[in-house]
Amino acid sequence: MARYLLERGVDEDCIIREDRSTSTLENMEFSKALIEERVGEDALASGEAKVAFSTTNYHVFRSGIWARRVSLRAQGMGARTKWYFWPNAAVREFAGLLTAHRGKQAMIIGAMLVASTLLTFIVYR
Questions:
Q1: Cα 102 vs. chain centroid, distance in angstroms?
Q2: Structural domain of 24
Q3: Fewest Cβ atoms nearer than 10 Å: which of 5, 25, 74, 114?
């Protein structure tokens, strides 16, 4: 991505490379630390520093969730994805969202089971 940005005229000083992460969450955490080193924690927290990240267009939403989780105010931009990859990508992102929020999902399913059980007892009583 750095090469792409440089070819499009973005100043090298505006690009921060993060190359240690193994997940999107780690990428946001490490990137936040790098940005704080460069511009300062106050500038980042106040929104004075403008931050953007790029990923595939189907992954922008979940990446934004991870950015928010680590308190990184950033704007996501998505690159186009081939049409034939969309079904796989949609399933992957859906599964990623479900597993990221296991506790909430368990509570919702539990509440639905309790409600349906109570309604069954009420109807057949």
A1: 16
A2: 2-123
A3: 114
